[in-house]
Write a structure and sequence with these properties.
This protein has 172 residues and is α+β, with helices and mostly antiparallel strands. 30% of the residues lie in helices and 39% in strands. It contains 4 helices and 9 strands. The strands form 2 sheets. Strands 2-6-5-4-7 form a 5-stranded antiparallel β-sheet, sandwiched between helices. Strands 3-1-8-9 form a 4-stranded antiparallel β-sheet, with helices on one face. A hairpin with a 3-residue loop joins strand 4 and strand 5. The radius of gyration is 16 Å and the shape is globular.
Length: 172
């Protein structure tokens, strides 16, 4: 199992985000879109493991320390690894940073983001044009974070699928 711990927006938020990015989709129809039903904010990618039971026990304890909170959308941006990842970013929220730091398997700066598309850009000119367009986009919305989720990531016929294993309710 390839496990990860995430925050999942509700269906209304997913649809609102999708509607707000639709001008981008029309402009760049070759983007590989994330299905809105799969939108999530990864708190920690664990990867291939057989320690599901231990992780579940750990998360049951972890959620006892934190109250529900909100994440507010900020805009859009991208980062590049093997391909470009286009995402919605969020304003900083101390609680989500604390949770992510407590879950961290490796050092690094956590920034909450929700991937909406992936693509390859063929030229620097296209890259900078897309970067400018994303910087101008404002995405409005908020996520009521009352649970965190342990999920499994798998590929089915070349498409990523996410299976919810268990949810863990934060304090009210």
């Amino acid at each position: 199992m390839k496990l990860f711990i995430a925050i999942k927006p509700n269906t209304e938020v997913n649809q609102a985000i999708y509607q707000q990015i639709s001008p981008l989709i029309k402009k760049y129809p070759w983007f590989e879109l994330t299905d809105p039903n799969n939108y999530h904010i990864t708190l920690q990618y664990i990867g291939e493991t057989d320690k599901k039971k231990e992780i579940i026990l750990y998360l049951k304890d972890l959620v006892k320390k934190y109250k529900s909170f909100y994440l507010f959308t900020r805009g859009m941006a991208m980062f590049s690894k093997q391909q470009l990842t286009i995402y919605v970013n969020f304003y900083r929220e101390k609680i989500v940073e604390q949770i992510a730091n407590e879950l961290a398997l490796q050092e690094g700066n956590f920034f909450p983001h929700l991937t909406v598309a992936r693509t390859k850009i063929s030229s620097k000119q296209q890259y900078f044009a897309l970067q400018k367009r994303l910087a101008q986009m404002k995405i409005e919305g908020q996520i009521d974070v009352s649970k965190i989720y342990l999920s499994n990531s798998r590929t089915n016929q070349g498409k990523l699928e996410y299976e919810e294993i268990e949810s863990f309710k934060l304090l009210k």
